[in-house]
Amino acid sequence: MKKLFAKATLITGTLMMVSCDSDDPVELSTTEQQEAALVAVATAVGENVSTDATAAGIDVNDSNFDWTLTKGSSRTQQVLDTIKYTANISEDVTWSAGVVHQLDGRITVLDGATLTIEAGTIVTGNKDLEGVNASVLMVARGGKLMAVGTAADPIIMTTTADDGSLTADNKGLWGGLVLLGNAPISEETVPAQIEGVPADDTNGLYGGSNASDNSGTIQYVSIRHGGAVINAAAGDEINGFTLGGVGSGTTIDHIEIYANSDDGIEFFGGNVDVNYLVVTQVGDDAIDIDQSYSGEVSNYLVTVDENSDEGLEVDGREGDLLGGTADDFRLTNGTIQAASGASITCDFKSKARGIVSNLNANGGQIKLAASFDTGTLESEEDAAQNVIDGNLVFTTVNATFAIYTDDFDQ
């Protein structure tokens, strides 16, 4: 189905159906009626959004990014002894920086256990394991990850193939990091099963009613070359960093996701804040928000290339929000830049609601989904209507805006 687009900032006279010679009503075709309905929404949206070239976003040379692979550090895999893991973690354990810690499969920190990873530690995923057997580090509900690196000694999570020569084209060489909690999500059933983890692994369940749930502390962590394909037919891949129902008691800052084949970071509900985030040249969306995520992502830097999809993809609720009614995200102080002349787009859809402030998308396009009752052509709740109603707010944004709908065949 082709999406019918209308620029919110440019409404042309050709879409205004009027009669100049008669007082009789004009008979409009179905297509003309649909176009008129879409233009009416675009006009209303245009009264609430505008391009602001003064949006500074986050400084791409901010010193908080100097530790990352893509903005300064040249750290590569060191020649160290290797410890291999094939079993889940059921009791407290520490992984030290003196060896490489290799994941041979999906390794889960179970309920009640804490995995501590020291600053400077290298964690690798076995490049030879694929599909449902791909290497993943997962923290189940009730488990904790204490991965506290520093700017001088970040924690690196990468593939066993990483000898220092890999580039942004080397994607999908292991799984990624999955963090699950008991915070509210909006889904048809709660708890839900996180994507990329087979349904028969109940450690993949996430979501609950504890908004202040604590899944640990993750700081100065670089996640590279992940996104293994779990089920090619279903398009099921692992995100670089997946957060499902992660609560506000969790601390996450100074995170880098580089060259992941799927999304860089994806939030499935929860309300954890993430500060100082770098997502570079991933194969799908850089930052993806779903299921009423209500935390704040602040000070983020995204680089898209010709293989990337959206710089931002934001969905709203999918069902009732368990544990509360507040479901507004915040995206604060962000810059989206393009490599190799790639286009910059962001997609807000499916009842997205929240606040986007100080975003420098370098003049790229923000797409706002509109929904209509196909009988009456009345606008229904979606991103565009939420802009009109004041539930989706854009403040100081350097981007153009466009409205689209999937409701009309064209």
Beta-strand proportion: 35-45%
Overall number of strands: 28
Which of globular, elongated, flat, extended, rod-shaped describes the shape? Answer: globular
What are the low-pLDDT stretches, counting only 5+ consecutive residues below 50? Answer: 7-26
Plain-language structure description:
The chain is mostly beta strands. The protein contains two helices and 28 strands. The chain has helices spanning 30-46, 383-389; strands at residues 4-7, 82-85, 93-95, 100-103, 106-109, 114-117, 122-125, 136-139, 144-148, 155-159, 177-180, 192-193, 205-206, 216-224, 229-231, 236-237, 241-244, 251-258, 265-268, 274-280, 287-290, 296-304, 312-314, 329-338, 345-348, 354-372, 379-380, 392-405. The strands form three sheets. It has a 24-stranded mixed beta sheet that branches. Helix 1 packs across helix 2 (383-389). It is globular, with a radius of gyration of 22 Å.
